[in-house]
């Protein structure tokens, strides 16, 4: 990446959303120009497994020498993007009630096989937040529970299952979204607890995942005055560089939560937020809905590079991390692909409910 003004270089640090279940000519042209590092899919991109598989193949084929990383949120419970026949597992909280690392691993493995069978590279799971505020609706039953050790154990097990099936896991939302009240989709939460409290509870699952060399960690759109009184974690070098990289020793990719969420766009343009996030240490920024905003973010980053407010060497580090990850996972077929909604996956979902209720 000698010339950081090149669209290819900046686009590689963006993961973007697309509007439909197939690439129309306008979207294809925009992606060809933008050359994003990744594409994130939502329910709007899904009609049936065959069409989804064709879409993923089309996306991977846009840049054969450096294929996009295709991602989605598929946690189980209320956060899923793919309707049946894809298996819908109970929410993480129910899985947490079983206390079973084996079941968590099997869920990750099953999720991974179903996603890999249609060409998905990355699942933005597991949720590693510790659910300590009962009024917290944005996390709630998406977390494995209120015990940090249990969250760590089950979260790492689910990540191992995904990885074993050939799908990249991503721990979220660093340094922890479980004690907040405000929903970051709507506004900007603040977590006013002392550093000691955060370390004893919220950081525990992330430390465990880092020890197991998890590939990605997603940051939270939450202000933690104990670390940075002004910027949310997703825009803060004090959180991403000082805490996550230096103190905790994370070597993988740091990905932002969606920069189009209310926590960000009520206070900043998406372009300015992308510049801040990348400058503060993010390797990949999510812009999930508007390709127009994604193109604007690229332009803002190019402008920041010309002005010297973004460092070319800083962005080269991020691009290299992403390239290394793609070489390991992206666009490769998994071994032993099971049918989507396989009977053993349905039985696993039922067993989780049986043990949780028992």
Notes on the structure:
- This protein is of the alpha/beta class.
- The chain is 45% helix and 10% strand.
- It is built from 14 helices and eight strands.
- The chain has an eight-stranded parallel beta barrel, surrounded by six helices.
- Helix 6 links the parallel strand 4 and strand 5.
- Helix 4 crosses helix 14, helix 5 packs antiparallel against helix 14 and helix 11 packs across helix 12.
- The longest helix is centred in the first third of the chain and has 18 residues.
- It is globular.
- The termini are far apart.
- The N terminus is likely disordered.
Reconstruct the topology from this structure:
Blueprint: H1 7-11, E1 14-17, H2 25-34, E2 38-41, H3 49-62, E3 69-72, H4 92-98, H5 101-118, E4 122-123, H6 148-164, E5 168-174, H7 195-200, H8 203-211, E6 216-219, H9 237-247, E7 253-258, H10 262-265, H11 270-280, E8 284-287, H12 291-307, H13 312-329, H14 343-357
Parallel strand pairs: 1-2, 1-8, 2-3, 3-4, 4-5, 5-6, 6-7, 7-8
Helix pairs in contact: 4-14, 5-6, 5-14, 6-8, 11-12
The general outline is: globular
Count the E strands: 8
- Helix fraction by DSSP (H/I, runs of at least 4): 40-55%
Strand order of the largest sheet: 1-2-3-4-5-6-7-8
* Uncertain stretches: 1-7
Largest sheet: 8 strands, parallel, barrel
Return the average pLDDT rounded to an integer: 93
C-alpha end-to-end distance: 56 Å
Quote the beta fraction. Answer: 5-15%
CA-atom Rg in angstroms: 19 Å
- How many individual helices? 14
Structural category is: alpha/beta
What is the chain-wise order of helices and strands?
HEHEHEHHEHEHHEHEHHEHHH
């Amino acid at each position: 990446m000698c010339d950081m003004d090149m669209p290819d270089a900046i686009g590689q640090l963006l993961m973007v959303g697309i509007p439909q279940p197939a690439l129309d000519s306008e979207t294809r042209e925009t992606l060809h120009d933008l050359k994003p590092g990744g594409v994130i899919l939502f329910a709007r991109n899904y009609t049936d497994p065959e069409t989804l598989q064709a879409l993923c193949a089309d996306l991977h084929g846009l840049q054969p020498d450096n294929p996009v990383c295709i991602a989605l949120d598929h946690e189980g419970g209320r956060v899923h993007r793919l309707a049946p026949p894809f298996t819908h597992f109970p929410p993480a909280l129910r899985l947490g009630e079983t206390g079973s690392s084996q079941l968590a691993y099997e869920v990750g493995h099953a999720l991974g096989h179903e996603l890999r069978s249609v060409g998905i590279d990355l699942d933005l799971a597991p949720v590693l937040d510790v659910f300590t505020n009962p009024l917290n609706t944005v996390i709630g039953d998406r977390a494995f529970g209120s015990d940090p050790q249990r969250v760590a154990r089950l979260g790492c097990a689910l990540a191992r299952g995904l990885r074993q099936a050939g799908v990249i896991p991503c721990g979220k939302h660093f340094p922890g979204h479980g004690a907040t009240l405000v929903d970051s989709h709507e506004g900007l939460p603040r977590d006013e607890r002392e550093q000691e409290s955060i370390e004893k509870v919220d950081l525990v699952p992330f430390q465990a995942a880092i020890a197991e060399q998890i590939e990605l960690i997603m940051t939270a759109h939450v202000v933690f005055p104990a670390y940075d009184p002004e910027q949310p974690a997703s825009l803060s070098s004090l959180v991403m560089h000082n805490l996550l990289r230096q103190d905790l020793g994370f070597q993988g990719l740091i990905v932002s939560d969606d920069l189009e969420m209310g926590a960000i766009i009520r206070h900043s343009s998406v372009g300015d937020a992308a510049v801040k996030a990348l400058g503060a240490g993010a390797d990949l920024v999510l812009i999930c809905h508007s390709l127009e905003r994604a193109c604007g973010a690229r332009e803002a980053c190019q402008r920041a590079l010309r002005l010297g407010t973004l460092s070319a060497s800083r962005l080269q580090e991020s691009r290299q991390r992403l390239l290394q990850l793609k070489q390991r996972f992206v666009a490769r077929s998994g071994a032993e692909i099971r049918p989507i909604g396989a009977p053993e996956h349905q039985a696993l979902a039922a067993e989780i409910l049986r043990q949780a209720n028992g």
